[in-house]
Amino acid sequence: MQAEGRGLAIRCEELVHIYRTGDADVVAVRGVDLDVEAGERVALLGPSGSGKSTLLGMLGGLIPLSAGRAWIGDDEIGGLTERQLLRMRADRVGFVLQGAARNLLPYGTAIDNVRFAQRSISRARRADLLEPLELLDALGLASIAERPMAELAGGEQQRVALAVAVANGPGLLLADEPTSQLDEPARDAVLDLLEAVNERFGTTIVAVTHDEEVGRRLGRTVSMRFGQVGHEGRHGSQFTVVGKDGSVHLSDEVLADWPPGTRVVVERDGDHVRLTRRHP
Ligand code: ADP
């Protein structure tokens, strides 16, 4: 982690990803437009299968774009070669996949794991990075720095996994379900660590989550459904995003009473649009 971070902005225009399986194509991400400012913290919410992990993988250069364009900082990722994508991931993007703690060296200490993560960074760049203990200290992990991973609780391992993900001083941290399977105190500790990474180093954070509380703490939420962004929320206020095709996603609460196929009358009055259920 660099002593002084530089967050990377994200810009996505009509991103699409199609998984081509033998018999059927699955459109996992269908036309996502998204702007994230440098240093912003965003939670990607939505039901299982709505395309969150796929979108995260696309932003990290792990999953190719079937269509659309995306920029991480000044780099347009669709235009990068495989080698340049590898370099981007090594130098500028931290990625925490689900179950990342399982990939840590079990007999190594937290320090060993951070050191191991820094091994492939060029010596010139390493000079800009915090030493493993300094990094762990900055993230509130000094007390467990010398403990072997196998002895740590799940939440502690997850926090070390996040520290390892930022050991290369990334401008962007992408995390897939960083708080799943943790109890409330452990989840809050992980959220404190994400805040520390963001505030101390300016790192932009995008985290996939099922947990509304994670969304509340991160401040901005982007909710997906069927591969599209349907809702956004910022610091408590929620709004629906009008899709490219003119569609709007209704909240689950409204959908419970108005299932798909319900006919509504749409009336416009200045800035207001009123939807009224039409009874047959
Ligand atoms: P989420 O993270 O919101 O649960 P995903 O991005 O994992 O959603 O999945 C979006 C859609 O893509 C789902 O329909 C899922 O079944 C499908 N999918 C995900 N990964 C693959 C894959 N490797 N091959 C085929 N389909 C996939």
Task: Provide a short characterization of the protein structure.
This protein has 280 residues and is an alpha/beta fold.
Low-confidence stretches: none
CATH-defined architecture: 3-Layer(aba) Sandwich
Biggest β-sheet description: 7 strands, mixed
**Mind telling me the CATH class?**
Alpha Beta
Helix content: 25-40%
Order of helices and strands: EEEHEEHEHHHHEHEHEEEHEE
Shape: globular
What is the CA-CA span between the terminal residues? Answer: 61 Å
Counting helices, strands and paired strands, the structural category is alpha/beta
Oligomer: single chain
Strand adjacency order, main sheet? 6-7-8-3-9-10-11
Bound molecules: adenosine-5'-diphosphate
- The radius of gyration is 20 Å
| Averaged pLDDT | 90
CATH superfamily: P-loop containing nucleotide triphosphate hydrolases
Q: How many domains comprise the coordinates?
A: 1
CATH-assigned fold name: Rossmann fold
Our estimate of the beta-strand percent is 25-35%
